[in-house]
């Protein structure tokens, strides 16, 4: 997954070299997510995660992502870079959903923790560009080359992993199953919860550095760029631990309960920051780290729930479709911030972000009261 955030790590350098406007830079950041949505929709319609061995899909996707990422070294315009970044997203749609599917085929007990560890790895990948920037940055060509090589290496490692003991036989191609898999009451409620979670997650990850830079600037900080980058690394990176804790609680306490709790705490953190406009940087960072822990702690549990309540023959398709819907929504919430923030300020943005998890928490509470709850986390709901 290294190429996903490779351009984000060196975006200031790319803007300077290719003479990109701030708007063009934002589109470059969105390109991977838009490409991922396109790839996930295509994969779900073809039921690829259920019909093709996971290690084959991951190998093909990882090598393709590495190649598209490496092609940035020969790009000279923002348009070419956008197309290549979108291709990275399309390729990674063959990596992330099949990896979740493969993990679910290895675990019945402890599945929430297993998927939580995997999503925790994604969280560390999200945080790493901010660490690079906080430590002084790196020459962008080196970053692109290294992340491309890591993608290929990851694909080769995945190729060594055989099918799990709970893998089901390949089903026939049924494009309609992509959406039918999520239409039943249980998967539909889990997906509504997931959408509430995703409304807030990637927007916060994308824009926290800009917000916290403003907090530091208002406090008279001498090194705003470095301080904001290191703070954002802490806020996003702590979510890896949140994913592990969320997985443990999901297995032992129940997935609907831990997802509801995480979204109440996450949405509440956004509202608290909205109420504390003008607070000292230390106060804001403390709340931000708490927010970063809980904003992602529930993420893997939504996929785990789908793996438990969806048609076993099309679990991979259901996971892929859920991810496609979620990442579509993130593109909207990310793009709205530059449009709304000048009029509403960060206080208004945080209130808007909080709406998603608060509605998502209600969806998970509703799911806990349905018969499908008996099939989740060994009957714990």
Q: How would you summarize the topology of this molecule?
A:
Blueprint: H1 6-9, H2 11-18, H3 22-45, H4 48-51, H5 54-70, H6 78-92, H7 96-106, H8 111-134, H9 140-158, H10 177-183, H11 185-218, H12 224-237, H13 239-253, H14 255-275, H15 281-297, H16 299-309, H17 315-368
Protein name: MFS transporter
InterPro entries: MFS, MFS_dom, MFS_Efflux_Transporters, MFS_trans_sf
Subcellular location: Cell membrane
Task: Name its key features.
single chain, 381 residues, mainly alpha, Growth Hormone, Chain: A, 17 helices, globular, MFS, MFS_Efflux_Transporters, MFS_dom, cell membrane
Structure report:
The chain has 381 residues and is mostly helical. 78% of the residues lie in helices and 0% in strands. The protein has helices at residues 6-9, 11-18, 22-45, 48-51, 54-70, 78-92, 96-106, 111-134, 140-158, 177-183, 185-218, 224-237, 239-253, 255-275, 281-297, 299-309, 315-368. α5 (54-70) runs antiparallel to α6 (78-92) and α13 (239-253) packs across α15 (281-297). It is globular.
> What is the mean pLDDT?
90
Q: What CATH architecture label applies?
A: Up-down Bundle
The major sheet is characterized as: none
Structural class: mainly alpha
Q: Please mark out the parts with pLDDT under 50 across 5 or more consecutive residues, or reply none.
A: none
What's the number of domains?
1
Summed up, the helix count is 17
CATH class: Mainly Alpha
CATH domain fold name: Growth Hormone, Chain: A
What is the total tally of β strands?
A: 0
């Amino acid at each position: 997954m290294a190429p996903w955030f490779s351009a984000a790590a060196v975006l200031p350098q790319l803007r300077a070299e290719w003479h990109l406007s701030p708007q063009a830079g934002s589109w470059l950041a969105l390109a991977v997510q838009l490409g991922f949505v396109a790839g996930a929709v295509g994969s779900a319609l073809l039921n690829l995660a259920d019909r093709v061995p996971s290690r084959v899909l991951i190998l093909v996707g990882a090598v393709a992502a590495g190649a598209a990422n490496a092609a940035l070294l020969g790009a000279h315009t923002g348009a070419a870079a956008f197309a290549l970044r979108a291709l990275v997203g399309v390729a990674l749609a063959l990596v992330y959903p099949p990896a979740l599917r493969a993990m679910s085929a290895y675990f019945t007990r402890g599945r929430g923790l297993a998927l939580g560890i995997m999503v925790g790895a994604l969280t560390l990948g999200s945080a790493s560009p901010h660490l690079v920037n906080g430590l002084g940055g790196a020459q962008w060509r080196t970053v692109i080359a290294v992340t491309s090589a890591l993608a290929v290496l990851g694909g080769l490692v995945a190729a060594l992993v055989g099918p799990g003991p709970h893998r089901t036989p390949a089903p026939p191609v049924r494009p309609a199953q992509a959406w039918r898999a999520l239409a039943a009451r249980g998967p539909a409620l889990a997906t509504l919860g997931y959408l509430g979670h995703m409304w807030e997650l990637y927007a916060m990850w994308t824009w926290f550095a800009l917000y916290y830079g403003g907090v530091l600037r208002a406090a008279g900080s001498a090194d705003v760029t470095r301080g904001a980058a290191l703070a954002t690394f802490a806020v996003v990176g702590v979510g890896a631990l949140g994913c592990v804790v969320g997985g443990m609680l999901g297995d032992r306490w129940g997935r609907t309960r831990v997802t509801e709790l995480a979204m109440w705490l996450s949405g509440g953190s956004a509202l608290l920051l909205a109420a504390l406009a003008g607070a000292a940087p230390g106060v804001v960072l403390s709340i931000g780290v708490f927010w970063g822990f809980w904003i992602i702690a529930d993420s893997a549990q939504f996929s785990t729930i789908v793996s438990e309540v969806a048609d076993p023959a099309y679990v991979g398709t259901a996971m892929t479709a859920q991810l496609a819907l979620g990442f579509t929504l993130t593109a909207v919430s990310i793009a709205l911030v530059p449009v709304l923030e000048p009029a509403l300020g960060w206080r208004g943005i945080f209130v808007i972000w909080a709406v998603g998890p608060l509605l998502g928490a209600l969806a998970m509470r509703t799911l806990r009261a349905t018969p499908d709850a008996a099939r989740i986390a060994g009957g714990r709901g």
